[in-house]
Amino acid sequence: MLIWVGGGIREPYEPREVGRRRGVRPVSARARASDATTHPAGTATGGSGRHPAASAGEQAYRRSTELSTSPEPALLAHQIMSSPVVTTSPDVAGHDAARLMHERGFHHLPVVSSSGELLGMVSDRDLLPAAATDRVIGEIMADRVLTASPEATIRQVARVMMEECVGSIPLLDERHRIAGILTRSDVLRCIVNHAPVDLWVR
């Protein structure tokens, strides 16, 4: 489940159909099937239109997914999240937060209260203007943050990241405290290292 958090208010995230935001027309499974051409495995170019390299690539992919030593696909956010999470407080100076992100290689920092409640998020882009580094984080941060449960599926979180153009989503536990954070890099790493491609194109 994904939730907007901000100003002491928690609102369920209402998903949109992927593609609607940028005016892209979704392609149905039937349309994809009608546009695809089926060829026997190993058919060379000439009449079939299939390039030998494409056939070899498909065979390699099939072999890789059949290996018994292949890792199990990661399906839930908590399986690939980064934890523990480095956070900052709203009274920290912008230049100190910028230095922390630079030293640790982060692009986003959750902002929390003294009790650990999520108050907002600040990104390295928020701190790009020179004037921003002279202000405290509480004046710069985004105070409405999209969050998810650690039990949310990776597919669901990745879809929302794409729809909302966000680079990271904090994962909150049942006490509404940060259990981890899921970034765009975590999702891409999961696709490369764990998940067969067909998990992501259905």
Structure explained in plain terms:
- Residues 18-48 and 197-202 have low confidence and may be disordered.
- The protein has a domain at 2-13 and 73-198: CBS-domain.
- The chain is α+β, with helices and mostly antiparallel strands and 202 residues long.
- The chain has 7 helices and 7 strands, in the order E-E-H-H-H-H-E-E-H-E-H-E-E-H.
- The strands form 3 sheets. The protein has a 3-stranded antiparallel sheet, with no helix packed on it.
- 31% of the residues lie in helices and 17% in strands.
Give the proportion of residues in helices. 25-40%
Q: Under the CATH scheme, which class of the domain at 2-13 and 73-198?
A: Alpha Beta
**Shape from CA axes?**
globular
Beta-strand fraction estimate: 15-25%
Poorly predicted regions: 18-48, 197-202
CATH architecture of the domain at 2-13 and 73-198: Roll
N- to C-terminal distance: 20 Å
Which sequence of strands runs across the widest sheet? Answer: 2-1-5
Look at the structure and give the mean pLDDT. Answer: 74
CATH fold naming of the domain at 2-13 and 73-198 = CBS-domain
> What structural class do the secondary elements suggest?
alpha+beta
Query: What's the order of the H and E elements?
Result: EEHHHHEEHEHEEH
- Quick one: CATH superfamily of the domain at 2-13 and 73-198? CBS-domain
Rg value: 21 Å
Assembly of the depicted chains: single chain
* Total DSSP E strands: 7
Profile the largest sheet: 3 strands, antiparallel
Number of distinct helices: 7
